[in-house]
Design a protein that fits this description.
The chain is mainly beta. The protein has two helices and seven strands, in the order ααβββββββ. The chain has a five-stranded mixed β-barrel with strand order 1-2-3-5-4. The radius of gyration is 13 Å and the shape is globular.
Length: 115
């Protein structure tokens, strides 16, 4: 199963309009957005991949710590669930699942893992 996770590229998922796929990736922060406070709170920012595809990262800060000191041009790595949209996609589930039903995700920034 793990090899399957890493064999699917984000470009393939975007091109195929696929969602609900657990992925690993990395990119550079290009925009920091306001937190989404509707329902579960999410820290939101946009990254750009080497392929130039952009992704919205929606990191649940009710279940995981806020990424402190996040700045433009920072490099991050992530493991989360990809959801398709026409702007490149969204990555969420970047945290532990307290109900232990979903695969645990994370974000790696400045040598700290946030989950």
């Amino acid at each position: 199963m793990r090899d399957e996770l890493f064999s699917v590229s984000l470009a393939q998922l975007f091109g195929g309009g696929q969602s609900n796929v657990q992925v690993y990736g990395s990119g550079v922060v290009t925009s920091i957005l306001s937190d989404d406070l509707d329902g579960s709170r999410h820290q939101r920012f946009i990254i750009e991949l080497k392929s130039k595809q952009t992704l919205l990262i929606a990191h649940n800060i009710d279940l995981a710590p806020r990424i402190d000191g996040l700045s433009l041009n920072d490099q991050i790595e992530f493991f989360g669930e990809y959801e398709w949209n026409d702007k490149g996609g969204v990555i969420h589930w970047t945290h532990d699942d307290p109900e232990e039903i979903h695969v645990n995700g994370w974000i790696f920034h400045n040598n700290v893992i946030y989950q």
